[in-house]
Backbone:
């Protein structure tokens, strides 16, 4: 109803309620992690923190103190997507994007999170929420780049 009043139905043809509920759950999870550990939530160090279970290298051991919640956090992201698929999509995987493109995109996102010293959950939720100048600039930068790239891809006629 609110989206109809604001003229947003073109942007959200399926409504905004599931986005609002998802946002509230992300915010709640972020708050629980922060108050429980004192560490801002973020998944970009998941690989290094997980490798600390099997490697003695200093690079991986720096995350040893926070690795358990990071594993739970990342598993929760995957399980949340699976629950959504089962509840709202009948358990079906619904994407028109070719698997190789998902892999390449995921790899580029992973590299970008390391170069940018954080991911959308770290910068976009925790950093902006705590009014970090670095995170605000980072989020503005990756949103601008995403919008430009999406428009270039659309103009070139690239399909999933």
Residues:
């Amino acid at each position: 109803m609110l989206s109809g009043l604001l003229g947003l139905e073109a942007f959200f043809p399926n409504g905004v309620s599931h986005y609002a509920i998802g946002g509230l759950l992300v915010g709640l999870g972020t708050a629980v992690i922060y108050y429980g550990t004192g560490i801002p939530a973020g998944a970009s160090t998941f690989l290094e923190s997980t490798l600390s279970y099997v490697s003695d290298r200093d690079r991986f051991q720096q995350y040893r103190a926070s690795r358990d919640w990071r594993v739970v956090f990342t598993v929760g992201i995957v399980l949340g997507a699976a629950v959504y698929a089962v509840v709202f999509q009948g358990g079906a995987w619904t994407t028109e994007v070719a698997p190789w493109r998902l892999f390449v995109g995921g790899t580029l996102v992973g590299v970008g999170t390391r170069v940018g010293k954080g991911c959308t959950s770290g910068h976009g939720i925790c950093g902006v929420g705590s009014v970090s100048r670095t995170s605000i600039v980072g989020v503005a930068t990756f949103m601008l780049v995403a919008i430009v790239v999406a428009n270039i891809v659309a103009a070139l006629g690239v399909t999933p």
